[in-house]
């Protein structure tokens, strides 16, 4: 791990900066370290980051192509990024790279209400895009927690999820086609504007979630849903985590599909209550809170929430409450939304991301409680219960080497528990620079070999985000060879 | 184009057959041409097909791995196939190949109702799988028209759609993970059992729809939906195709999502009425029929269908009829389901597959009527109106060279119209051996280059289905070089 410092710009680095300035304009290429530092890392405290040669901010696809061609010619790696809301260090700079910032490509190119689709550039903020399509009576479902500042490009690069996934799926489910700048600077168009289409390999979904390692997405055509009804809300409190997990499993088994189904454990509830200076009604013995919404509208939503309420009661809930008042519903959800902010009262948070079968949620939460005891740190679990995607969040003091080590251990131990429950090491945040060995463990040597062969096919010079997701040089021995040979 | 004939088995071919028999057992390897002929082609009359060296029918993943290793060692290409219901020749044999038939791998390995997922082998018939999960109150949506005999493996290879896609998506939307035998015989596991997961590239969706060119799928883990309610049905007759197209566009724009929305043009209605020896109530001036279902249940379904009925009336429908009686609904749908069979009364059918934006359906239908006039052949258009996926079906006499040529011209002209309307050359059937030049036209040289680089990365010896979807040797000149060199 390195920290930000003055770059040692070589002669070839200066030549590259000059070429980029000549082609994109002086103001699009930034080398002032006061500025470039702020583009050198995302929101994951554990991830290493380096010092970029320059930050480049193109305003159109041609600018991206020019940047890629110039960097390819100079042999300088490119780290693409959006707003920097990521949680894996995937957008973190490496020493001497060009950070390619897409935030100035922030145009909503088209909203075609008749065909329920839109064309959007990567720099558009998720919430701005949602608001714009909503004005046309349409709905763009993916809603990561950072939706008020993350960009569509970052959402595409990480295949971002969010709270609505339980009913509406993740980013990849909403995308019809892409424009992608490849490693040789050529422009690939994938997919189409039609709802269905099987002409060739599904390249669209290959680039989505590839964390900027295969190309730079400069435009996306996305399908939109009808704008749903204002949701009704249910909250249910349990004095037993297993009972809450059981309620989730029963909701799934009964075929009920709420539009939101979140879970908070005791540590999350405590943090939210302290922060909000209010009793959120969970009661003193409350070990887990379920929050559900239905956006099916009127009588149907009421019926869905009543059915879920009955399941919660049968599973042993101490308290349930249903409202179809939107403002009250938002207030109830507030407890869920403030958890990370609330945890900052206690220290720095480090949020993990593990997805388990929906029948194993309670076991994951109890596993996290055990790990918290073992490492002696506060771990709060919040998560998208409806799809089994949990975010155990560790609170620690990063200025303490000992606490940092324990936090890192807890982070890994949580992944270990997730895998042992039949889960995956990342539900929606990605691999980035922090879970590479875990990716290898989850997908095995054949999976890694296929990843490397696809990377090699599309990016033979290892130009794009070369130290994210996986290394092209699998063993320490060959890494040494590479250093010696370069 | 070649036709079936006695194979000229070389010494190395005999050695391969001997090795396969030694490894898989004598009965798993068939060389009797009376039998192998029946595995040499699918349902697309235009596609070329050759004479296989042998048909191999493994019963497990290890058998597939042994077959792939033996063929790779012998340099003999493999054409994987299921039931042979395909409509592009993708499963057609090439001379001297091994046809790898997956129909004996037909076990439903697991149904996990609590997590709404199942694990299934490729040889399971779609309908058998649907029935099995339905017994657990669950629903596997993809329902290609051949669902009573096509297999899950073929559905995966082609990313098959069907009638339910308008509400439930296509095959790729239902798959969580795969087991795939790669070109070196190793076994790749993609994806996971959780609803969400972003660990690494989305290899699952790369293999789905790759038409057997990248590997052999030997198992799939699929997500299941709650079993929907028995559907209500609406039929609406229009004396103007444009009005029917307008009704479809308005349904989309209003945000209504029926569980089925099919369109039939006049030629289809006539064929169905003649075949069924009944007036299906469309009336004499009827130019287009819309058939819709809603499976949302009870009052909600009634409300949805009433809203669609109102839209149809506003758009100019001459007749509308709604029923919530399942048997009556099935009877009404019968007209749609018998069209291909009904067309056989007039000759051999050749069904095309083009997907257009949902606002352009009427233009596609009128384009097909114009083409029918130009080539002097009957073209009946049926299609999945709700997602713009149309199947113009040309009727001709294959024993007439002239009619065959005109049919082929019509087939191409329809694709041309589809592309000019912003559509794609295949909505759900695939490229196979009949739309290769059209694929190149739709995705362009950069797209083709990416396809070839991925194929090269995963199948460097061009072992899997080498003459389907695209050629690794793009120009005739290099093809000649290849022949000369081999």
Automatic annotation (TrEMBL), chains A, B:
Record carries keyword Oxidoreductase: yes
Pfam family, one: FAD_binding_4
Methyltransferase recorded as keyword: no
InterPro entries recorded: FAD-bd_oxidored_4_C, FAD-bd_PCMH, FAD-bd_PCMH-like_sf, FAD-bd_PCMH_sub2, FAD-linked_Oxase-like_C, FAD-linked_OxidoTrans_Type4, Oxid_FAD_bind_N, Vanillyl_alc_oxidase_C-sub2
Cofactor requirements of the protein: FAD
Coiled-coil stretches noted in the UniProt entry, renumbered to this chain: none
Regions crossing the membrane: none
Lineage top rank: taxon: Bacteria
Keyword terms: FAD, Flavoprotein, Oxidoreductase
Start and end residues of each FAD-binding PCMH-type domain: 48-227
Protein name: FAD-binding oxidoreductase
Organism: Haloechinothrix salitolerans
